[in-house]
Amino acid sequence: MGWGQPSRERRVLKAGHSSIAVTLPKPWAEAMRLRPGDVVVFDQNDDGTLYLKPAPPEASIVPATPYLIQAQSFDDPGLLKRLVVGAYRSGHDAVEIRTETALTSERVEELLDAARGLLGVSIVAQEPNRVLLQNFIDPSKYGLPQLVQRMKMILVAYIEEAESAVTKRTPSRRLGSFTEEADKVFALLVRQLFLASRDWSLARRIGSPDPRQLLEWRVVVQTLEEIGRLLAEIAETLNRHSQDPQPELEGLPELLGELKIGLKSVVDTLMHPTLNAACDAYSESYRIQLAARELGQKAKAPARKNGLAAAIWALGLSASRLSSLAEMALDRAVATGNEMVLLASP
């Protein structure tokens, strides 16, 4: 280190009537060019340690340059929206669209749809050849555990709509709103992970005290996104055929109910890992996976014609992804420390 090796111990001093203070090592303060009156910023880690650094000068804080997407024209439907979503997910606060030819009404509506589908994004400038989108979300206000719990609630809602389609044989009108909300939460979660990977202080504030855990968080989010797509497919398929004559297939409503309970258990264990809970969640998810496979083997030819078999197949994939999450919950529990678990003999 350029500032040498200062003493690792500092005595706590009385400062004023009710405050205490600790001095900073002089070599470090000189290396950081700190002077009396300067500001330092710090974050408290979960283990009680402090992360300390000089505050950046106000003059150095400049508005970020918008991410520029420029082309002669945008003719492919969906491409412009996906570019905006990609810029948002990768952490850009402002996205500017420029074209040599005026944007068509279809492309303008596509940009409006992109803004509606992203939390905190609005169109702040619109001209024939230029559109500026701005994000107004403070990333420090959205913790990773809270967003994952919100995702869990949306996935549970998908399962409940699928249950209703099977048992009540009435089509749901809420699937579209669930899908819109799921897309918003997924995009925000990916954005949070990108931002946290570039700012360790932010990573700590939003629930990842060890920045090395961000890769694990990314796998969790991606797996939950896959489960979400599968559950949406199941709910939509069963919803579409809810009033069609269907062969009786025993076990489907019960399996959906078990998947809902298993999903809650696995996600809760991921967020608050204990070895006992993780072992239970792992065993339950594996049992659900086997039950889904057995149910798929029972599907007869009539079920294949009306789409029921496709829903069962997607249900099996959902159970498989849930097992992957249960394995991660088990890994997290083992990593938290030493704990004894008594496993029943077979």
Classify the helix fraction into a percent range: 40-55%
Strand pairing plus helix content: what structural class?
alpha+beta
Give the terminus-to-terminus CA distance.
Answer: 58 Å
What general outline do the C-alpha atoms trace?
flat
Task: Walk me through what this model shows.
With 346 residues, the protein is α+β, with helices and mostly antiparallel strands. It folds into three domains: 13-60, Pemi-like Protein 1, Chain: D (Ribbon), CATH 2.10.260; 67-135, Translation Initiation Factor IF3, CATH 3.30.110; 140-335, Phosphate transport system protein phou homolog 2, domain 2 (Methane Monooxygenase Hydroxylase, Chain G, domain 1). 54% of the residues lie in helices and 12% in strands. The protein is built from eleven helices and eight strands. It has helices spanning 26-31, 79-89, 105-116, 144-167, 175-198, 200-205, 214-240, 252-271, 275-298, 301-305, 308-335; strands spanning 13-15, 19-21, 40-44, 50-54, 67-71, 94-99, 121-127, 130-135. The strands form three sheets. The protein has a four-stranded mixed β-sheet, with helices on one face. Strands 1-2 form a two-stranded antiparallel sheet. Strand 3 (40-44) and strand 4 (50-54) form a beta hairpin. Helix 8 (252-271) packs antiparallel against helix 9 (275-298) and helix 9 runs antiparallel to helix 11. The radius of gyration is 26 Å and the shape is flat. The termini are far apart. The relative contact order is 0.08.
